[in-house]
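quick one, 123 residues, struct below
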Amino acid sequence: MALLKIIPTNTTYRLANDIIRMIPNRIILARDTIYDKNGNMGVVNGVLKHHNLTQLTYDLNISAKNLLSYDTHDFGDNTFYGTAYTTGTCHIYEHNGEITIDIDVIPEKKGHNLSIIQQVLVG
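---
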């Protein structure tokens, strides 16, 4: 079993019974199944590039159906927080130290999901 943690969204996914290809300076995920903490499933494709397991860059595509996609519990450095289960796709990639997350999803109704609360900033 392996874990994949997405820090900006505070989500961790479990990979189980998948084959992860490791070649020099690359870790390849090809249609690997991921599970959120509730057992909901998604599929990840992508590559993690590295130099002797340092200088990590990545390019990941995730397809999800009712997957826990966002799970923060306080504002921290953000202007909102909450929990969201979604269906759709997400592309996460890093280039020159900049993380980009392109999201095309719809929220699902599950428990207390999509309880995103916006912080009002008084200036």
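The radius of gyration is 16 Å.
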